Structure formats: C-alpha cells, structure tokens
User: Which sequence fits this backbone?
C-alpha cells in the first residue's frame, strides 16, 4: 500500500471516525454524503479513499471483526462445548451492543461483497462447529440453527441505542435470556 501524504492520511482517519460514529449510532442507512460532511471532507475525497460503500464498511468495522474472530476462536478452543458456545454468544452480544451498524453489516454481509462477507462466512462456519459440539453434548437445543443466532444478534442491536450507562447490563441480561432459550433443558 502506498503511503499517504499526511493531509490525505488525516482525511482518511476523519472519514473512518465519522463512519464509525454514524454507523454505530444510526446503522448502515447513513448516506455517504452525510459521512463526508461529518468528516469535514468533500464526497470526492471520501470516494478517493473509499471507492465503494462496501470498502468503507469493511474498513470501519475491521477492528470489530478482529474482535469477533478472537471471540469465536476462544469459544472454539473451550473444552466444554456448551461453555464455548455460551461464551461466544455472550461476547458477541456485548460487542454488538456498541454498534447498530456492525450488527447490520454482519447480518447482511452475505448480500455484500468485500472482506466482511468473507469473515462472516468463516466465523459462522466456526460457530456452527461449536454449536454442533454443544448439540452433540446435549446442552444446546437440537433445532438450533445459525439463523437463530443471526436473529438474536439482529434483535439485540437495539441495545446499542440504550443509554451508555445501562448498555453492558442490558447486553448481559439479553445474553442470559437468549442462552436460557437455547438451552436443551
């Protein structure tokens, strides 16, 4: 990658910061012009740095994807299948409680191209492995599917709109209720 001039790098960082803030607060319906306006740059500058909306979304959520990958890999290595699955669900709900846009991007990534779509497929395949282990162990409902997980994450996206002071508590409570519903008990 070519190194950017300092002013171009500053513009790029301002665009990413604006996109992260707006996507987190408002979801993916935010327009590119609004992001450019918030960043204090023109639309041409935004498109020069991020030629497509998918490119901007991928870059805006790169850190969350790395976090999700770490969460899923940690759950995969947990010796107890149910605990591995439960830890994945708890942490994904916690991460998602900070950004409506990330949940939207992750939930609809199969309809898009780009890095996020590739990560999504890989992470869902790994989560499915962990879920299968928990089903075989008899602790996860036999009828659980990845669609159920995506539905839970999409439903939980509203937590990101809660007042910040109560968000962590709401995410933890939502995870507890979701795990109770998914338990084979």
Assistant:
């Amino acid at each position: 990658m070519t190194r950017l001039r300092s002013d171009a790098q500053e513009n790029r960082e301002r665009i990413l910061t604006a996109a992260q803030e707006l996507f987190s607060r408002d979801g993916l319906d935010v327009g590119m012009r609004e992001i450019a306006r918030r960043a204090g740059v023109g639309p041409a500058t935004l498109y020069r740095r991020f030629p497509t909306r998918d490119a901007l979304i991928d870059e805006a959520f790169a850190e969350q994807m790395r976090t999700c990958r770490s969460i899923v890999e940690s759950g995969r290595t947990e010796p107890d299948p149910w605990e591995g699955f439960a830890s994945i669900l708890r942490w994904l709900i916690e991460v998602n409680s900070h950004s409506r846009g990330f949940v939207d991007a992750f939930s609809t990534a199969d309809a898009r191209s780009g890095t996020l779509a590739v990560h999504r497929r890989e992470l869902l395949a790994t989560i499915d492995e962990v879920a299968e282990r928990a089903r075989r162990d008899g602790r996860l409902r036999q009828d659980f599917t990845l669609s159920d997980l995506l539905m839970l994450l999409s439903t939980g996206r509203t937590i990101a709109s809660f007042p910040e002071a109560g968000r962590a508590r709401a995410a933890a409570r939502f995870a507890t209720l979701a795990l109770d519903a998914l338990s084979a008990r």
Summary: Residues 115-136 form the longest helix (22 residues).
